[in-house]
Amino acid sequence: MSTQYPSALAFLRASRQQEIAALRHLLNSGRLTTEVSHLIHELQRERGASNIWICSAGEEFSDELSRCGRQVARSQERVMALLPSLPEVANDWPASSRLFSAIAIAMQALNEQEVLRQQVRALQLTHTQAMTGFNHIIRQLMHLVFEMVDTASDPGVSRALIAMYSFMQGKELAGQERAVGSAGFAAGHFPPELRQQMLSLIDAQERCFSNFTQFADDETLQCWQSVAQSESDVERLRRIACTLTRPDEQGAAMALRWYQSLSRRIDGLKTVEDRLAHALMQRCRQSISEAEGRGDIGPAEMQQQMKQRAEEPSWSVFFTSYDGQQPHAEPLQADGLAPQLGRSLLTLVQQQSRRLQDQDDELAAMRASIEDRKQIDRAKVLLMRHQGYSEDQAWQTLRKMAMDQNKRMVDIASALLAVASAFTTPAQ
């Protein structure tokens, strides 16, 4: 008695069902990414208010600080509600182990914020220490977003995620610029190291926003251009910061002006970020709709395709084989199927294969860009760990090496990682 196996049509149906399931997972990831971006924005607000609170020795922004703390708590609750449930067995959830690890690290960082908040309120931290604490929490949330970007499998969704991640990076650097500038203006002057930090943050923002423009949709780019054109006051204050070398008696007033101008800019950036979140969700739903539109392949669809091709000339599908001497083409037969039905099914399989291959090609290019970023980040960590550099110093070192050698930064990073033993092996 012959064994009955699933048909090719059954496997094609299963392929589409899996595709839809993966897209629904991406839709959930998109919702989580959106809420994480809101949480990061609220933390950026609290970090900014904390800067003014500390720099004014507790005389400014008391109410604002409390309001920011409440907003962070509400946003955090929404993020927690969207986290994936823990799988009962290994294959219950399509997310990678790295994503669950990133969630765990982000949750641990969020658990530390109450202590940080109390220390800020009690003025037990310097401006730099408070900024470092907030930066750590935000960095872990950004890593969580990065893992969601890295696990996306639909090219359109991947583009939306990469655009959003790149923009979130630039916006976070803008928040750090607000904090550094607030400290400088409050002190009444910008020493050389603070000016250099400002310039580095401005330069890094430009790189992130440039990367964002390569992946964003046209409507978001229009929104971005309108925001970018309204930054004249920020540019004026930046020039003052870069030339203010002696103490200014109006430091407090200038610090408040700087904070307000940069806050308006960051609020403007948030409108672009919200537009990116909308585009991301729209792209997720569109991909699901397209996949469902291609969904089930039933007898009716088969019959319709047979009628459409009834008048077409006969043809064969060929594949290349090798007989030990020369490659040659052989016809692929649809054994057990009527000629028209065989052509219909093979056409569907070919269309599905071509579409998946196109997706793979586009994803490969995107993942290559993400992998370059990982290499550079690993090289930065290497320099920070073994040379005692700050993150900005490590970046500037890699950048100078790349310019001096006329090479890409990722090539310099890869070379450093390849000889990492030179940094870790003790001298004999």
UniProtKB/TrEMBL annotation:
The region annotated as signal peptide is: none
SUPFAM superfamilies reported in the protein's UniProt record: CheY-like
Q: Which stretches make up the ANTAR domain? A: 356-417
Tell me any Pfam family this protein matches: ANTAR
- Record GO terms (molecular function): RNA binding
Under PROSITE patterns, the record lists: ANTAR
| Name of the protein this chain belongs to | ANTAR domain-containing protein
What organism does the UniProt record list as the source? Answer: Erwinia sorbitola
